[in-house]
Amino acid sequence: MKPRICIIDYGMGNTQSVANAIEYLGADYLISSRREDIQASTALILPGVGAFAAAMENLRRLELPDLLTDVVVGQGKPFLGICLGMQLLARDSVELGLHSGLGWLEGHVIAFEPSHDVRIPHVGWNNCHIRKQDPLFSNLAEDAHFYFDHSYHLTCPHELVSATFDYGGHFVASVQKNNIFATQFHPEKSQRHGLKLLRNFLNFAASASGKIAQDGEPC
Amino acid sequence: MLKTRVVGVLVIKNGIVVQSIQFKRYLPVGRVSIAVEYLNRWGIDDIVLLDMDATPRDCSPNFEKIREYSRFCQVPLTVGGGVRSVKDMENLLHSGADRIALNAAAIGNPQLISEGARLFGKQCMVASIDVRRKPDGSHEVFSHSGTRPTGQSPAILARQLEEQGAGEILLTSIDNDGMKQGFDLELIQQVADAVDIPLVACGGAGHPRHLLEACKLGISGVAAGNFYHYTEHSVIVAKSFLHAAGVNVRLDSFVTYDDCHFDNDGRVARISDETLDKLRFKVIPEEVI
After folding, report:
1. CB of B74 within 8 Å of any CB in chain A?
2. What total of structural domains would you count in chain A?
3. DSSP state of A13
4. What is the pLDDT of residues A153-197, one digit of tens each?
5. CB A51 to CB B121 under 8 A?
6. What is the tens place of the pLDDT at every residue in A93-108?
7. Domains of chain B and any CATH numbers
8. Which of B47, B57, B44, B46 is nearest to B13 (CA)?
9. Do B255 and B234 touch, CB atoms closer than 8 A?
């Protein structure tokens, strides 16, 4: 079954950029925040260009937190969070005051220490150190570069981290936990490497939806 | 470590990409979506689209056009020109922009940058500053495509914009723009020392060594517009030059130009007959993702 990707529109992601990349890969997608669309699609992408508090506020206004938790954590629908879409999975963030997130990952979002001898925000192309190749980073070099653009970063337990980056210290570049994947960088804006990563996610979504169908569960 | 960005700036006037000379003369280059697609294929790190028509006409960006231009852009796209409200920013992000550039709006209405940073994060806010050198050698910021003097010093303004929530400064020297004589290094140094956020410099590149001179000041990115339009494989050539000089740039192409030399115009010098004789065809299969 061809996967259908729902790019979640909560008013503040670079949704069209994600859509352009998904379209380039030839996958079926829609940009929506409607309950039916989220339930009917085979995989979800939560894009993010925004501030944490405003994003959570928008998600709550659209009544999405409970629905997403049910569909992703409960039913195991493949999920990819990008940039802010990764940070929102944490328990909380200190961006512009302390705010609680979706809480799917045991983690916190904190600011880069200003003591680092680097310019903040962290903007541009940086190499990753990939720790878990499978499935998101298959066919990618261990030090593949991606485009980053953020002022805050996620801290979470070691076992969830699938890649790190170096910017005056080591930080979390991507996480994975069962069906939940998330990247601090923007795969939709990272040319070949980013497209490969999105292809890996689409392949994971396709095989996962096949499994769900075989088990006779609706997806 | 983080790589130094090689940024392409596309100036749009009357719906087409133009070559700009000191913000006074404009020469037509071609269609925007094609310029975006080519820069993307040549391995540019970041594209900035600046629409010169919107602010003078007092209208919002043309969102449908941005959607069309962004279609084949697989690198970050910063869009500026005519952004007057947070609604404009939101619409741009839904039309294919990844970051928002503010110029006149940032100077005339500093609240807008703070409001944008509150909603979209400071990493999304690029403050674009256009600067002229005064007869006494000091610098002054101009807005509205270089037509309105603001009386402000670039370093002080950049610092203020950083405090208001800008996440990056795009600094353009109007005098050097299109002159192909190199960047205004003194100006870049002043602003680089004044801010802690990333700085991208623009205006004056005519030879890859100009990009190198700016990179050596420790800035986050070097931008050029005209330089890329008329030189074959310009982006890859420029990056190879920077790489050979020890700058940490992103190289993502099979073509490397490792053994090339450059003439005074910054074009790849003719390769000797002996070298050409030794060349063999190499087949590199196109990668299917």
Report:
1. yes
2. 1
3. S
4. 999 999 999 999 999 899 999 999 999 999 999 999 999 999 999
5. yes
6. 999 999 999 999 999 9
7. 5-278 (3.20.20.70)
8. B57
9. no
